[in-house]
Write a structure and sequence with these properties.
Layout lengths: L3 H6 L5 E6 L1 E14 L6 E14 H10 L3 E8 L3 H12 L7 E3 L7 E7 L4 E7 L7 H17 L2 E5 L8 H11 L4 E4 L13 E2 L3 H8 L6 H15 L2 E5 L5 E5 L6 E5 L12 H14 L4 H15 L10 H7 L1
Parallel strand pairs: 1-4, 1-8, 2-6, 4-5, 8-9, 9-10, 10-11
Antiparallel strand pairs: 2-3, 6-7, 11-12, 12-13
């Protein structure tokens, strides 16, 4: 077992390819002091707006916060949201040159109307969920294969927005050449992700994939083993306040392991899965065992759920928390 501190010491500059559905999180923040006379809804008096990275872009931000080197591949439109997304990426030190531009679809943007007490009033989504095809699909395959071949680990961040297609999954697995491929899945068809090293569904996604309920440790064990049987991947089920369930088949004998949650206070679970896969990928990239990498990812997630919106945790901050 590697000490968490020794794993963190090795992360600086480690290249991780992050391929998937990039998003822009747009927050409209204001004060509520009355109900509209037109309908029973609050009137939000605008005070400010914020732009944050979401989806695969937030995974890349988490890799960067841990001093890794994210190689981001995704798809954006030819619109103002793409310009804003690129600006936020540059501010975070993340390259945008491998983003494929499709002028027929919008950049995925989630507009949240939020009170200054972090209470969400409404959300408006701008998106196109159709899978990339034709020239756009070929461009995505080429970009994804290139970064997968050069990185020490790969994350496929699938939010079902049309980027992580079966063709992209196959191309990435082939280009990775045996290096770790971690998938944050959203599609109920688990077999779609065959070839991945680790799948990291949350327990709701694992329930959909297996057609079962996960309420007990025995349920989690059975679901993880069923997902492994369908994909041959190791399985890390994120389980909210229950922590995580790991089925590790990477060694000479399979291991079932419950990892208790470490969060002291939960403010918002948005983006916690992004933190998990980013931390897991970096740890595996520097040679950590899957068990040690999962424990470190669990600790990182325990920090970010105490913050509002998609968030990141820095390497030194995580070290202090450990």
């Amino acid at each position: 077992m590697n000490a968490p501190g020794s794993i963190l010491d090795q992360l600086s500059g480690t290249a991780v390819a992050v391929i998937g559905d990039v998003m822009l999180d747009h927050f409209l923040i204001g004060r509520v002091d009355r109900i509209s006379p037109e309908a029973p809804v609050p009137v939000v008096r605008f005070e400010r707006e914020e732009f944050r990275l979401g989806g695969a872009a937030n995974v890349a931000a988490n890799v960067r916060a841990l001093d890794g080197e994210p190689l981001l591949v995704g798809c954006v439109g030819l619109d103002d949201a793409a310009d804003r997304l690129r600006a936020v990426l540059r501010d975070r030190g993340i390259g945008d040159t491998s983003l494929v531009v499709d002028d027929t679809r919008p950049t995925t943007r989630k507009v949240r109307v939020v009170t200054n007490r972090n209470q969400q009033v409404a959300r408006v989504d701008y998106e196109d969920e159709t899978e990339l095809a034709g020239a756009m699909a070929r461009a995505m395959h080429a970009a994804a294969s290139h970064v997968a071949a050069t990185a020490r680990a790969v994350v496929l961040s699938d939010y079902r927005k049309g980027v992580v297609t079966p063709g992209v999954i196959a191309a990435v697995v082939a280009a990775a050449g045996g290096r770790p491929v971690i998938v944050d899945p959203k599609v109920p068809d688990a077999a779609r992700y065959t070839g991945a090293t680790v799948l990291t569904p949350n327990h709701h996604e694992a329930e959909l994939m297996t057609g079962t309920r996960i309420q007990t440790a025995d349920d989690a064990r059975a679901a993880a083993r069923a997902l492994h049987a369908a994909t041959q991947a190791n399985i890390l089920i994120t389980w909210g306040e229950r922590g995580m369930w790991l089925f590790d088949a990477s060694g000479p004998s399979a291991i079932d392991l419950h990892i208790p949650a470490t969060a002291r206070e939960v403010a918002d679970v948005t983006g916690a899965g992004d933190t998990v896969v980013a931390t897991l990928a970096l740890a595996l990239a520097v040679g950590a065992s899957l068990g040690d990498a999962a424990r470190l990812a669990n600790d990182a997630a325990g920090i970010v759920v105490g913050r509002f919106g998609a968030a990141t945790v820095g390497r030194d901050e995580l070290r202090r928390a450990l």
